[in-house]
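Entry for the shared binder. Reason: the reviewer on the internal report wants the predicted structure included alongside the sequence.
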Amino acid sequence: MLNKILAVCLLLLLVSPAIAESTELESVLMELKRAAATTQSLSSKFEQQKNLAIFAEKLLSQGRFVYQKPDRLRWELLTPVASGFILQGKQGQRWNALSQEQGSFSVETDPIMGMIAQQLLAWARVDLDWLQQRYRMELQSAEPVRLRLSPLDAGEAGFIDYLQIQFAADRSHVAEVLMVEQEGDSTLLSFNEVQINTELPTNAFTAPDF
């Protein structure tokens, strides 16, 4: 009998921290959802820092990001080469100033662009339900909120080790996204000068002319 009691006590000691961690995660996710529910539009600048295992130097680029609820976005690199895409619903346009190329695409027929668009929309909307369907989510920090996402899909897990998402202090938007690949390469996106629910330029979702 004593052995059974000790076994139960040991099990409770192991399970209790996991329950507490799960409860804290759910509480934080609810707060993030409430903060994001009021976002109608979002615009920001961003810096992208790529660390490649084969290079000692970091590759830096800068750009801007624009989102309007429910599914319009603009992702544009400004340096070192101007390129990007806009999306309105399921249809989009992309461009590259170096090659002087422009073209249309559909997220339904272009799976790579579809996945990129889904990820960006998930960050802009703070679509935690979509993220939880694709990733195992861990709370690394509550102040500021920092989540670690491990892919559930075997195909994605073969490429991506994990994502780390950090939110702004007021929890209103994503401040940083770190993607670590299985081979050791990583990409860090840092969003700055973020503006929420401000009037967007009339050409926010128009491709540039070369």
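Summary line for the report: The mean pLDDT is 88.
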